[in-house]
Amino acid sequence: MKKMKQQKNPLTLLFQYEQQLGLENLKKQSPKKKKRANCIKQSKLTQLNQKIIIFLRNLGISNASDINQQFNKKSVCIKDLPPKIHNQFKKQKIVKKNKYFLKNSNLQSYTSLLLQHRIQATKLQKKQPSRANIQRNSKSLVDSYNILSIKRKIESNSLNNLFINQQQSNQITNSYYQKSLDYFYKTLIINQQIQRNLNKNKQMDTQTYDQSRPAIPPQHFDMVLNQVKNRNNYLDLGMETGQNFFQFYHQFNGNIVGIDLNSQRVEFVRQKAQKILPTQAINRTQLIDGDVFKIADKLPNKTFDLVTIGSQIHNFGSPDKFYQFAKERLLSAEGTLALTSINPLDVEFQACYDDKENAALRKDFATLNEYLSEYAILPNNPFLNQGVMMRHFNNIQKFEQNVEQVMEAEHVFEYFRTLPSYIKYMQDDTQVDKYALQNFERKVREKIQKRSLTMTKQQSLLRVTHKILTFLLRK
């Protein structure tokens, strides 16, 4: 009978991986070359840190506490580490009685701490890199969207924010598009008209947002209606600018309710409804700005024959919790819940995933999705875990639609502030929000300036194939 292979200490694997990266050869730079050394050090550390995070996630480690949980200990014994590394940690006085104590911190700060101690502990010398390497390392910093403050919230299990999708999309597409003049456009999946001063932070109006939304194929609405037996009451959650609302309202004879966290969008739908809906339908319509979980008592119990959610399921926390809530409080006896998720997975994205250089990142993305699947759905995730959906939905269908999106450059930053998920995120931590947006805007402006994106791009249109996934739940 074969013996089971003993699982290695994650820290042992980590340090072995650091040796493969050549981390032990990084030296503490001399003060005389401080200015140049900082440039080298910062770019090198950023690259190493990202690689180490990917490595740890592939081990199933999402934050520092996962290492402790894996061994059911409050601290991790490092006696199995190579003696040289063990001695280095002893010199730095971060080891007590052969145990390295891990704080319950996010993965980014944890790996940064490890890097700092490893560099301070080693005295090995390394030849100074060439000027070409310095420039290349510096360029990698500019080309990458470094939203480290956001990762703190993501990796501490605050999953209800929009930056999960944006962060991962930027990381994956970065190396594939970094040589392209259209990088800025393709990364955001939005084509911008570069014609005004980006320093003028004007509020993005709801009408502009409505025009930039991707179209949903009419077959989607037909398929949903075919699943609805009774057509009395209708509820649209995460209403946004009324894409679902204005397609379904005329099919129901009873109460018509729309709910969204963004009061501006609710007002936009209200004004549009006054122009489009007949008087009889307006009298039956109720538009509410708020959280459905908090205002559930104001809604009739188990009366809605159709509940729709358009690309907003990730804002409702745990899918299991929401589906249970929908069954117990919203859906009628034969009610239907229809969820639409937009998943941009075109040829260019696929080519990026198949790139050998991104193989590790692709695996990391899949691991992240598996970790998040119990808590949130990532609508922009090409590895959307349909297993989560299949537990609840008995009918899944996919449509393809070519979509043109045009948005002025000055509206990019305000675009994030209008999203319901962003509003919920703001309620938790405004300081992180302020820093994140400033950092994001600075990086985008650097990108525009460096790529010389001027008015010559204003007529350029980017066509993106969206895969519209529709999931239906029948009680």
What does this structure look like?
With 475 residues, the chain is α/β, with parallel strands linked by helices. It has 21 helices and 11 strands. It has 2 domains: 10-143, no CATH class; 155-475, Vaccinia Virus protein VP39 (Rossmann fold). Helix 2 (34-58) crosses helix 5. The longest helix is centred in the N-terminal third of the chain and has 25 residues, at 34-58. It is globular and about 80 Å long. The model is unreliable at 1-7, 24-40, 67-82, 91-110, 113-204, 342-396, 400-409 and 451-471 (pLDDT under 50). Keywords: Methyltransferase, Transferase. Residues 232-357 form the Methyltransferase domain. Pfam families: Methyltransf_31. One of its GO terms (biological process) is methylation.
What's this entry about, in short?
The protein has 475 residues and is of the alpha/beta class.
> Count of DSSP helices?
21
Structural class: alpha/beta
Question: Count of DSSP E strands?
Answer: 11
Uncertain residue segments: 1-7, 24-40, 67-82, 91-110, 113-204, 342-396, 400-409, 451-471
CATH topology of the largest domain: Rossmann fold
Write out the CATH superfamily name of the largest domain: Vaccinia Virus protein VP39
Instruction: Write down the overall mean pLDDT.
Output: 54
Strand-residue fraction?
Answer: 5-15%
Shape: globular
Strand order of the largest sheet: 6-5-4-7-8-11-9
CATH class of the largest domain: Alpha Beta
Under the CATH scheme, the architecture of the largest domain is 3-Layer(aba) Sandwich
Helix fraction by DSSP (H/I, runs of at least 4): 40-55%
Distance between the termini: 49 Å
Total domain modules: 2
**How big is the Rg?**
25 Å
